[in-house]
Protein backbone atom coordinates (compact mmCIF):
# COMPACT_ATOMS: atom_id res chain seq x y z
CA UNK A 1 0.00 0.00 0.00
CA UNK A 2 1.48 3.35 -1.05
CA UNK A 3 1.77 6.24 1.38
CA UNK A 4 -0.66 9.14 1.22
CA UNK A 5 1.17 12.43 1.41
CA UNK A 6 0.27 15.46 3.53
CA UNK A 7 2.25 18.53 4.46
CA UNK A 8 1.62 17.87 8.16
CA UNK A 9 0.36 14.88 10.11
CA UNK A 10 -0.93 15.56 13.63
CA UNK A 11 -1.27 12.62 16.03
CA UNK A 12 -3.95 13.29 18.65
CA UNK A 13 -7.15 15.27 18.09
CA UNK A 14 -7.76 16.72 21.51
CA UNK A 15 -7.94 20.50 21.89
CA UNK A 16 -4.16 20.76 21.49
CA UNK A 17 -4.00 18.69 18.33
CA UNK A 18 -7.02 20.49 16.88
CA UNK A 19 -5.38 23.88 17.39
CA UNK A 20 -2.02 22.77 15.99
CA UNK A 21 -3.78 21.35 12.92
CA UNK A 22 -5.90 24.46 12.49
CA UNK A 23 -2.93 26.84 12.66
CA UNK A 24 -0.97 24.76 10.18
CA UNK A 25 -3.99 24.67 7.83
CA UNK A 26 -4.43 28.42 8.20
CA UNK A 27 -0.84 28.69 6.98
CA UNK A 28 -1.83 26.99 3.74
CA UNK A 29 -0.69 23.45 4.54
CA UNK A 30 -2.48 20.17 3.81
CA UNK A 31 -3.07 18.59 7.22
CA UNK A 32 -4.18 15.15 8.43
CA UNK A 33 -5.48 14.93 12.01
CA UNK A 34 -5.31 11.39 13.41
CA UNK A 35 -7.34 10.24 16.44
CA UNK A 36 -8.02 6.74 17.76
CA UNK A 37 -10.69 7.73 20.30
CA UNK A 38 -12.88 10.84 20.14
CA UNK A 39 -12.17 14.04 18.26
CA UNK A 40 -12.17 16.71 20.96
CA UNK A 41 -10.08 14.59 23.29
CA UNK A 42 -9.81 14.21 27.04
CA UNK A 43 -10.82 17.76 27.90
CA UNK A 44 -14.10 17.65 26.02
CA UNK A 45 -15.39 14.30 27.24
CA UNK A 46 -13.57 13.26 30.42
CA UNK A 47 -11.78 16.21 32.01
CA UNK A 48 -12.25 20.00 31.92
CA UNK A 49 -15.79 20.20 30.55
CA UNK A 50 -17.57 17.43 32.49
CA UNK A 51 -15.71 18.10 35.74
CA UNK A 52 -16.73 21.76 35.73
CA UNK A 53 -20.29 20.79 34.83
CA UNK A 54 -20.32 18.60 37.94
CA UNK A 55 -18.76 21.26 40.17
CA UNK A 56 -20.72 24.35 39.16
CA UNK A 57 -24.14 23.42 40.63
CA UNK A 58 -22.66 22.64 44.03
CA UNK A 59 -20.64 25.84 44.04
CA UNK A 60 -23.73 27.81 43.09
CA UNK A 61 -25.82 26.22 45.85
CA UNK A 62 -23.11 26.97 48.42
CA UNK A 63 -22.91 30.57 47.18
CA UNK A 64 -26.70 30.96 47.42
CA UNK A 65 -26.62 29.79 51.02
CA UNK A 66 -24.25 32.66 51.79
CA UNK A 67 -26.79 35.18 50.51
CA UNK A 68 -29.74 35.91 52.82
CA UNK A 69 -33.08 36.24 51.08
CA UNK A 70 -32.38 33.78 48.27
CA UNK A 71 -34.92 30.92 48.27
CA UNK A 72 -32.95 27.67 48.03
CA UNK A 73 -33.16 24.02 48.93
CA UNK A 74 -30.64 21.92 50.80
CA UNK A 75 -29.62 19.45 48.09
CA UNK A 76 -28.84 19.21 44.40
CA UNK A 77 -30.95 17.30 41.92
CA UNK A 78 -28.27 14.80 40.93
CA UNK A 79 -30.21 13.48 37.95
CA UNK A 80 -30.47 16.94 36.41
CA UNK A 81 -26.82 17.72 37.16
CA UNK A 82 -25.69 14.54 35.40
CA UNK A 83 -28.03 15.23 32.48
CA UNK A 84 -26.57 18.73 32.05
CA UNK A 85 -23.06 17.27 32.11
CA UNK A 86 -24.09 14.80 29.41
CA UNK A 87 -25.43 17.65 27.30
CA UNK A 88 -22.07 19.41 27.43
CA UNK A 89 -20.17 16.26 26.47
CA UNK A 90 -22.70 15.27 23.82
CA UNK A 91 -22.78 11.82 25.42
CA UNK A 92 -19.54 11.08 23.62
CA UNK A 93 -20.75 12.01 20.12
CA UNK A 94 -17.80 13.68 18.39
CA UNK A 95 -19.45 14.17 14.99
CA UNK A 96 -19.54 17.93 15.52
CA UNK A 97 -15.77 18.00 16.11
CA UNK A 98 -15.19 15.95 12.97
CA UNK A 99 -17.29 18.36 10.91
CA UNK A 100 -15.42 21.29 12.44
CA UNK A 101 -12.13 19.77 11.29
CA UNK A 102 -13.38 19.37 7.73
CA UNK A 103 -14.69 22.93 7.76
CA UNK A 104 -11.26 24.15 8.86
CA UNK A 105 -9.61 22.46 5.88
CA UNK A 106 -8.26 19.55 7.94
CA UNK A 107 -8.59 15.87 6.99
CA UNK A 108 -9.90 13.97 10.04
CA UNK A 109 -8.59 10.40 10.19
CA UNK A 110 -9.80 7.72 12.58
CA UNK A 111 -7.10 5.29 13.63
CA UNK A 112 -4.20 4.71 15.96
CA UNK A 113 -1.21 6.59 14.57
CA UNK A 114 2.34 5.46 15.24
CA UNK A 115 5.58 7.00 13.98
CA UNK A 116 7.14 4.40 11.68
CA UNK A 117 10.02 6.30 10.15
CA UNK A 118 11.29 9.73 9.21
CA UNK A 119 8.26 11.95 8.45
CA UNK A 120 6.08 8.85 8.38
CA UNK A 121 3.04 7.72 10.39
CA UNK A 122 1.44 4.29 10.09
CA UNK A 123 -2.09 3.58 11.28
CA UNK A 124 -3.28 0.38 12.90
CA UNK A 125 -5.26 -0.47 9.74
CA UNK A 126 -2.10 -0.38 7.64
CA UNK A 127 -2.51 3.02 6.04
CA UNK A 128 0.71 5.03 5.78
CA UNK A 129 0.90 8.82 5.82
CA UNK A 130 3.98 10.69 4.69
CA UNK A 131 4.55 14.24 5.91
CA UNK A 132 6.39 16.69 3.65
CA UNK A 133 7.18 19.08 6.47
CA UNK A 134 6.24 17.89 9.94
CA UNK A 135 4.69 15.33 12.25
CA UNK A 136 3.18 16.93 15.36
CA UNK A 137 2.59 14.77 18.46
CA UNK A 138 -0.32 15.91 20.63
CA UNK A 139 -1.19 12.68 22.45
CA UNK A 140 -1.66 14.24 25.88
CA UNK A 141 -1.19 12.34 29.12
CA UNK A 142 -2.46 9.27 30.95
CA UNK A 143 -3.10 8.64 34.66
CA UNK A 144 -0.32 7.38 36.87
CA UNK A 145 -1.38 4.34 38.90
CA UNK A 146 0.60 3.64 42.08
CA UNK A 147 1.64 0.13 43.05
CA UNK A 148 -0.60 -0.67 46.01
CA UNK A 149 -1.25 -4.24 47.17
CA UNK A 150 -4.73 -5.32 46.18
CA UNK A 151 -5.42 -2.43 43.82
CA UNK A 152 -5.39 -4.84 40.90
CA UNK A 153 -8.24 -6.83 42.45
CA UNK A 154 -10.73 -4.00 41.87
CA UNK A 155 -11.55 -1.65 39.03
CA UNK A 156 -10.62 1.74 40.48
CA UNK A 157 -11.89 4.94 38.99
CA UNK A 158 -9.51 7.17 37.13
CA UNK A 159 -10.40 10.74 36.21
CA UNK A 160 -12.46 9.48 33.25
CA UNK A 161 -14.71 7.32 35.41
CA UNK A 162 -15.03 10.10 37.98
CA UNK A 163 -16.35 12.58 35.44
CA UNK A 164 -18.53 10.18 33.42
CA UNK A 165 -20.23 8.09 36.14
CA UNK A 166 -23.97 7.78 35.59
CA UNK A 167 -24.91 7.28 39.25
CA UNK A 168 -23.85 8.88 42.51
CA UNK A 169 -21.83 6.34 44.52
CA UNK A 170 -23.02 5.88 48.08
CA UNK A 171 -19.45 5.83 49.36
CA UNK A 172 -16.49 7.18 47.39
CA UNK A 173 -12.83 6.97 48.33
CA UNK A 174 -10.43 9.44 46.71
CA UNK A 175 -6.66 8.95 46.79
CA UNK A 176 -4.70 12.11 46.04
CA UNK A 177 -4.87 15.74 47.09
CA UNK A 178 -4.09 17.35 43.77
CA UNK A 179 -6.52 19.19 41.52
CA UNK A 180 -8.46 16.15 40.30
CA UNK A 181 -8.70 14.72 43.81
CA UNK A 182 -10.07 17.81 45.50
CA UNK A 183 -12.40 18.80 42.67
CA UNK A 184 -13.98 15.38 42.34
CA UNK A 185 -14.17 14.86 46.11
CA UNK A 186 -16.17 18.06 46.53
CA UNK A 187 -18.31 17.55 43.44
CA UNK A 188 -19.49 14.06 44.40
CA UNK A 189 -19.91 14.97 48.07
CA UNK A 190 -22.30 17.74 47.08
CA UNK A 191 -24.14 15.33 44.81
CA UNK A 192 -24.82 13.11 47.80
CA UNK A 193 -21.89 10.70 48.10
CA UNK A 194 -20.07 10.09 51.37
CA UNK A 195 -16.52 10.92 50.34
CA UNK A 196 -13.27 9.98 52.09
CA UNK A 197 -10.28 11.87 50.71
CA UNK A 198 -6.84 10.45 51.53
CA UNK A 199 -3.85 12.81 51.23
CA UNK A 200 -0.20 12.41 52.20
CA UNK A 201 0.37 15.85 53.71
CA UNK A 202 -1.29 18.19 56.16
CA UNK A 203 -3.31 19.90 53.44
CA UNK A 204 -4.29 19.39 49.78
CA UNK A 205 -2.74 21.22 46.81
CA UNK A 206 0.85 21.01 48.13
CA UNK A 207 2.33 22.89 45.16
CA UNK A 208 0.39 26.04 46.04
CA UNK A 209 0.84 28.37 49.02
CA UNK A 210 -0.22 26.82 52.32
CA UNK A 211 -3.12 29.24 52.75
CA UNK A 212 -4.63 27.89 49.53
CA UNK A 213 -4.57 24.32 50.79
CA UNK A 214 -5.91 25.36 54.18
CA UNK A 215 -8.90 27.21 52.75
CA UNK A 216 -9.70 24.39 50.32
CA UNK A 217 -9.43 21.92 53.19
CA UNK A 218 -12.04 23.96 55.07
CA UNK A 219 -14.25 23.99 51.99
CA UNK A 220 -13.99 20.23 51.56
CA UNK A 221 -14.96 19.59 55.15
CA UNK A 222 -17.84 22.05 54.89
CA UNK A 223 -19.08 20.00 51.93
CA UNK A 224 -19.04 16.88 54.08
CA UNK A 225 -15.80 15.33 52.81
CA UNK A 226 -13.90 13.33 55.42
CA UNK A 227 -10.27 14.24 54.83
CA UNK A 228 -7.57 11.86 56.08
CA UNK A 229 -4.43 14.02 56.31
CA UNK A 230 -0.85 12.77 56.70
CA UNK A 231 -2.10 9.44 55.43
CA UNK A 232 -1.96 7.10 52.45
CA UNK A 233 -3.32 3.87 51.09
CA UNK A 234 -1.36 0.79 52.14
CA UNK A 235 -3.63 -2.01 50.89
CA UNK A 236 -6.97 -2.68 49.20
CA UNK A 237 -9.32 -5.55 50.05
CA UNK A 238 -12.51 -6.77 48.39
CA UNK A 239 -15.15 -7.34 51.09
CA UNK A 240 -18.84 -8.06 51.17
CA UNK A 241 -20.65 -4.89 50.22
CA UNK A 242 -17.69 -2.90 48.98
CA UNK A 243 -13.95 -2.28 49.01
CA UNK A 244 -11.98 -1.90 52.23
CA UNK A 245 -9.15 0.60 52.20
CA UNK A 246 -6.37 0.09 54.73
CA UNK A 247 -4.85 3.50 55.38
CA UNK A 248 -1.37 4.13 56.66
CA UNK A 249 -1.60 4.67 60.39
CA UNK A 250 -4.14 1.90 60.91
CA UNK A 251 -7.47 3.50 59.92
CA UNK A 252 -9.82 1.63 57.58
CA UNK A 253 -12.56 2.87 55.26
CA UNK A 254 -15.12 0.89 53.25
CA UNK A 255 -16.17 2.42 49.93
CA UNK A 256 -18.22 1.51 46.88
CA UNK A 257 -15.81 3.17 44.43
CA UNK A 258 -12.20 4.31 44.68
CA UNK A 259 -10.88 7.21 42.61
CA UNK A 260 -7.11 7.08 42.16
CA UNK A 261 -5.97 10.63 41.41
CA UNK A 262 -2.21 10.46 41.86
CA UNK A 263 -1.01 12.39 38.84
CA UNK A 264 -0.53 11.95 35.10
CA UNK A 265 2.33 11.03 32.78
CA UNK A 266 2.99 11.98 29.13
CA UNK A 267 1.35 9.52 26.70
CA UNK A 268 4.47 8.50 24.79
CA UNK A 269 4.73 4.73 25.23
CA UNK A 270 2.85 3.60 22.11
CA UNK A 271 3.51 6.25 19.47
CA UNK A 272 6.68 4.80 17.94
CA UNK A 273 9.38 6.84 19.62
CA UNK A 274 11.52 3.71 19.80
CA UNK A 275 11.82 3.82 16.00
CA UNK A 276 13.60 7.15 16.42
CA UNK A 277 15.77 5.94 19.28
CA UNK A 278 13.95 8.10 21.80
CA UNK A 279 12.83 7.09 25.31
CA UNK A 280 9.24 5.87 25.40
CA UNK A 281 8.54 6.55 29.06
CA UNK A 282 8.96 10.27 29.50
CA UNK A 283 8.09 13.67 28.03
CA UNK A 284 9.19 14.80 24.61
CA UNK A 285 11.78 17.54 25.10
CA UNK A 286 11.05 20.45 22.79
CA UNK A 287 12.55 23.83 22.03
CA UNK A 288 10.54 27.03 22.31
CA UNK A 289 8.94 26.51 18.88
CA UNK A 290 7.81 23.01 19.86
CA UNK A 291 10.38 21.15 17.77
CA UNK A 292 11.66 17.93 19.36
CA UNK A 293 15.29 18.69 20.04
CA UNK A 294 16.65 15.13 19.81
CA UNK A 295 15.39 14.38 16.28
CA UNK A 296 17.60 15.33 13.35
CA UNK A 297 16.07 17.14 10.44
CA UNK A 298 13.70 19.28 12.50
CA UNK A 299 10.54 17.51 11.32
CA UNK A 300 9.11 16.22 14.63
CA UNK A 301 7.15 18.59 16.86
CA UNK A 302 5.07 18.19 20.01
CA UNK A 303 2.70 20.28 22.10
CA UNK A 304 0.64 19.93 25.26
CA UNK A 305 0.86 17.40 28.08
CA UNK A 306 3.10 15.10 26.06
CA UNK A 307 5.94 17.61 26.48
CA UNK A 308 5.60 17.65 30.27
CA UNK A 309 5.84 21.45 30.32
CA UNK A 310 2.45 22.62 31.62
CA UNK A 311 -0.30 20.01 31.91
CA UNK A 312 -3.20 22.38 31.33
CA UNK A 313 -5.54 22.54 28.35
CA UNK A 314 -5.24 26.28 27.82
CA UNK A 315 -1.45 26.14 28.04
CA UNK A 316 -1.36 23.24 25.58
CA UNK A 317 -3.49 25.18 23.12
CA UNK A 318 -1.15 28.14 23.50
CA UNK A 319 1.83 25.92 22.67
CA UNK A 320 -0.13 24.42 19.77
CA UNK A 321 -0.61 27.87 18.24
CA UNK A 322 3.14 28.38 18.43
CA UNK A 323 3.82 24.96 16.87
CA UNK A 324 1.30 25.30 14.04
CA UNK A 325 2.51 28.78 13.16
CA UNK A 326 6.18 27.69 13.33
CA UNK A 327 5.63 24.70 11.04
CA UNK A 328 3.75 26.82 8.50
CA UNK A 329 6.36 29.59 8.53
CA UNK A 330 9.26 27.17 8.11
CA UNK A 331 7.37 25.40 5.32
CA UNK A 332 7.26 28.76 3.52
CA UNK A 333 11.03 28.99 3.92
CA UNK A 334 10.91 31.76 6.49
CA UNK A 335 13.52 32.25 9.19
CA UNK A 336 11.71 32.52 12.51
CA UNK A 337 12.76 33.96 15.84
CA UNK A 338 12.35 31.92 19.01
CA UNK A 339 13.49 34.73 21.26
CA UNK A 340 11.36 35.13 24.40
CA UNK A 341 7.85 36.48 23.80
CA UNK A 342 8.10 36.21 20.02
CA UNK A 343 5.21 34.71 18.04
CA UNK A 344 7.15 31.48 17.55
CA UNK A 345 8.20 30.96 21.16
CA UNK A 346 6.13 29.36 23.94
CA UNK A 347 7.72 31.64 26.52
CA UNK A 348 4.71 31.69 28.85
CA UNK A 349 5.35 28.03 29.68
CA UNK A 350 8.17 29.21 31.92
CA UNK A 351 6.89 32.51 33.31
CA UNK A 352 3.13 32.92 33.27
CA UNK A 353 1.15 29.70 33.50
CA UNK A 354 -2.38 30.51 34.73
CA UNK A 355 -4.35 27.82 36.50
CA UNK A 356 -7.65 27.48 38.33
CA UNK A 357 -8.81 24.90 40.85
CA UNK A 358 -12.61 25.02 40.57
CA UNK A 359 -13.38 24.01 44.12
CA UNK A 360 -15.30 26.14 46.58
CA UNK A 361 -13.34 28.27 47.37
CA UNK A 362 -11.68 28.62 44.00
CA UNK A 363 -7.90 28.82 43.75
CA UNK A 364 -6.22 30.80 40.98
CA UNK A 365 -2.55 31.34 40.36
CA UNK A 366 -0.22 32.68 37.68
CA UNK A 367 3.54 33.07 37.73
CA UNK A 368 5.53 32.65 40.92
CA UNK A 369 3.88 31.65 44.18
CA UNK A 370 7.01 32.19 46.29
CA UNK A 371 10.03 34.48 46.24
CA UNK A 372 13.01 33.23 44.26
CA UNK A 373 15.93 31.91 46.30
CA UNK A 374 18.57 34.54 46.91
CA UNK A 375 16.53 37.29 45.29
CA UNK A 376 15.17 40.62 46.47
CA UNK A 377 11.64 39.51 45.69
CA UNK A 378 8.95 40.50 48.14
CA UNK A 379 5.81 38.52 48.97
CA UNK A 380 2.68 40.45 49.95
CA UNK A 381 -0.16 38.47 51.59
CA UNK A 382 -3.53 39.98 52.49
CA UNK A 383 -7.08 38.89 53.19
CA UNK A 384 -9.61 39.53 50.45
CA UNK A 385 -11.64 41.95 52.52
CA UNK A 386 -13.10 44.68 50.32
CA UNK A 387 -16.55 46.12 49.80
CA UNK A 388 -17.01 43.98 46.70
CA UNK A 389 -16.30 40.70 48.50
CA UNK A 390 -18.50 41.65 51.48
CA UNK A 391 -21.42 42.30 49.15
CA UNK A 392 -20.64 39.21 47.11
CA UNK A 393 -21.21 36.80 50.01
CA UNK A 394 -21.84 37.00 53.73
CA UNK A 395 -18.77 35.93 55.67
CA UNK A 396 -16.57 36.00 52.56
CA UNK A 397 -13.27 34.22 53.21
CA UNK A 398 -10.37 34.71 50.86
CA UNK A 399 -6.66 35.37 50.55
CA UNK A 400 -4.43 37.09 48.01
CA UNK A 401 -0.70 36.94 47.40
CA UNK A 402 1.47 39.08 45.15
CA UNK A 403 5.14 38.32 44.42
CA UNK A 404 7.09 41.40 43.34
CA UNK A 405 10.52 41.85 41.81
CA UNK A 406 11.56 44.83 43.94
CA UNK A 407 14.54 45.68 41.73
CA UNK A 408 12.41 46.15 38.60
CA UNK A 409 9.15 47.02 40.36
CA UNK A 410 7.05 44.43 38.46
CA UNK A 411 4.69 41.63 39.45
CA UNK A 412 6.12 38.12 39.09
CA UNK A 413 3.15 36.16 40.36
CA UNK A 414 -0.32 36.38 41.89
CA UNK A 415 -2.44 33.87 43.82
CA UNK A 416 -6.10 34.35 44.76
CA UNK A 417 -8.23 32.05 46.89
CA UNK A 418 -11.93 32.68 47.48
CA UNK A 419 -15.42 32.38 46.08
CA UNK A 420 -15.57 33.30 42.37
CA UNK A 421 -11.97 34.52 42.08
CA UNK A 422 -11.35 32.71 38.78
CA UNK A 423 -12.49 35.79 36.87
CA UNK A 424 -9.70 37.80 38.49
CA UNK A 425 -7.03 35.57 36.99
CA UNK A 426 -6.70 37.15 33.56
CA UNK A 427 -5.95 40.59 34.98
CA UNK A 428 -3.15 38.97 36.98
CA UNK A 429 -1.90 37.15 33.89
CA UNK A 430 -1.76 40.40 31.93
CA UNK A 431 0.18 42.07 34.75
CA UNK A 432 2.73 39.25 34.82
CA UNK A 433 3.10 38.76 31.06
CA UNK A 434 3.16 42.50 30.39
CA UNK A 435 5.61 43.14 33.25
CA UNK A 436 3.47 46.08 34.24
CA UNK A 437 5.34 48.29 36.67
CA UNK A 438 3.64 48.79 40.01
CA UNK A 439 3.71 52.56 39.68
CA UNK A 440 1.70 52.18 36.45
CA UNK A 441 -0.52 49.42 37.86
CA UNK A 442 -1.49 51.92 40.56
CA UNK A 443 -3.38 53.82 37.86
CA UNK A 444 -5.45 50.77 36.84
CA UNK A 445 -8.42 51.79 38.97
CA UNK A 446 -10.61 48.84 40.07
CA UNK A 447 -14.36 49.35 39.82
CA UNK A 448 -16.30 49.78 43.06
CA UNK A 449 -17.74 47.61 44.57
CA UNK A 450 -16.08 44.55 43.05
CA UNK A 451 -13.74 41.87 44.35
CA UNK A 452 -11.10 43.30 42.00
CA UNK A 453 -10.61 46.07 44.58
CA UNK A 454 -8.18 43.56 46.07
CA UNK A 455 -5.63 44.86 43.52
CA UNK A 456 -5.70 48.27 45.20
CA UNK A 457 -5.27 46.66 48.63
CA UNK A 458 -2.30 44.62 47.40
CA UNK A 459 -0.58 47.74 46.09
CA UNK A 460 -1.30 49.61 49.30
CA UNK A 461 0.09 46.72 51.34
CA UNK A 462 3.22 46.87 49.21
CA UNK A 463 3.60 50.52 50.11
CA UNK A 464 2.29 52.53 47.19
From TrEMBL:
It comes from Amycolatopsis silviterrae. This is Dihydrolipoyl dehydrogenase family protein. Residues 6-313 form the FAD/NAD(P)-binding domain. The lineage of its organism: Bacteria, Bacillati, Actinomycetota, Actinomycetes, Pseudonocardiales. Residues 353-455 form the Pyridine nucleotide-disulphide oxidoreductase dimerisation domain. It holds the Pfam family Pyr_redox_dim. Gene3D superfamilies: 3.30.390.30, FAD/NAD(P)-binding domain. The keyword NAD applies. InterPro entries: Class-I_Pyr_Nuc-Dis_Oxidored (IPR050151), FAD/NAD-bd_sf (IPR036188), FAD/NAD-binding_dom (IPR023753), FAD/NAD-linked_Rdtase_dimer_sf (IPR016156), Pyr_nuc-diS_OxRdtase (IPR001100), Pyr_nucl-diS_OxRdtase_dimer (IPR004099).
Amino acid sequence: MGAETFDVVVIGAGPVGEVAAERAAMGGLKVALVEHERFGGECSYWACIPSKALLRPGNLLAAAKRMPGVPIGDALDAEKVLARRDWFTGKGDDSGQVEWARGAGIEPVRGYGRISGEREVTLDDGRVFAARHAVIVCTGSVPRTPRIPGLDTIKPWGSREATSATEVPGRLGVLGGGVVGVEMAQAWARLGSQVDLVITGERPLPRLPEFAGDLVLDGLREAGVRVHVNSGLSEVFVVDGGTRLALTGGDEVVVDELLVATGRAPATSTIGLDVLGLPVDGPLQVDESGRVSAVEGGWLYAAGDVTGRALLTHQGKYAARVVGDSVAARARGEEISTEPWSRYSATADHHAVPQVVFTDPEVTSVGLTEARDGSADRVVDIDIAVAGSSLHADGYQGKARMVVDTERGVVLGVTFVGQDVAELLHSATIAVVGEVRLDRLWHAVPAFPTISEVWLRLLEAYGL
